[in-house]
Amino acid sequence: MYLAIDIGGTKTLIALFSRGGRVLKRRKFRTAQGYKSFMRDLESNLKDFKKRRIQAITVAIPGIVQKNYSVSFGNRNWDNIDLIGLLKELFSCPIWFENDANLAALYEGYRLPGRTVFLTFSTGIGGGIAEHNRIMPESSSFEPGHWKYEYNNQFLEWEDIAAASAIGSYYHVDHATDLRKKTFMEEIARRVALGLPDVIKKYDPDTIILGGPMGKIFHLYTKYLPHYDVKLRRPRRPNESVIYGCYRYARQKESE
């Protein structure tokens, strides 16, 4: 069995996979602001899995991973967080770390022809690049959310314009996915469209998958996007792309 741990900005999801890729058990808890509280919550929730025969663990990090170790935790100012130490205390198996958007790209691009770019519109805008069922090296420096564009007479980062959190804040709603009116969808499409030409020009994808919370309303706003010579797709699993990518990544590492 394989354990997937997706540490998100608002929630952390743990999933136990069978060898064949079926989810056997899930646990979800709110990601605490402080890392000490988070570590306590993580340890408490992982204890339910200790008696299982875990063959490998993949941890999805919302930040930079180098040499199988997290060196940046996204929007969290967490220093010296010893995830590997905690996991090794609980489990005796290989443990892998990877960026969450890269893992989502791996799963969502699996068995698709050519190159796939996955974009997640969530707290920020992240992204990953996959080709031939592998995460591409370009993914390590792919940070589309920090690209800057002019919008409403301001020069802002793309994620401050088009992330689900930014859209929700602009419209004063808790969840951008609650928006449904045509005028909202046209506005969302304009925001999302700002960065897509640069993604296409720089990375020449065959498919772009628009994920995160905005993937849930893909069919509502994409009809108002300009035409691109690239296939735009909704994620197969908008809420679980990352954990399924964790499973796929563990299986790949096992075969190397």
What does this molecule look like?
The strands form four sheets. The chain has a five-stranded mixed sheet, with helices on both faces. A five-stranded mixed sheet has the order 10-9-8-13-14, with helices on one face. It has nine helices and 14 strands. The chain has helices at 35-46, 83-90, 100-108, 159-162, 164-170, 182-193, 196-203, 218-221, 241-255; strands at 2-7, 11-17, 23-30, 56-61, 65-66, 69-70, 95-99, 115-121, 125-131, 134-135, 148-151, 154-157, 207-211, 231-233. Strand 8 (115-121) and strand 9 (125-131) form a beta hairpin. The chain is globular, with a radius of gyration of 18 Å. It has two domains: 2-102, Nucleotidyltransferase, domain 5 (2-Layer Sandwich); 112-233, Nucleotidyltransferase, domain 5 (2-Layer Sandwich), CATH 3.30.420.40. The model has no long low-confidence stretch (mean pLDDT 90). The protein is an alpha/beta fold. Helices cover 31% and strands 27% of the residues.
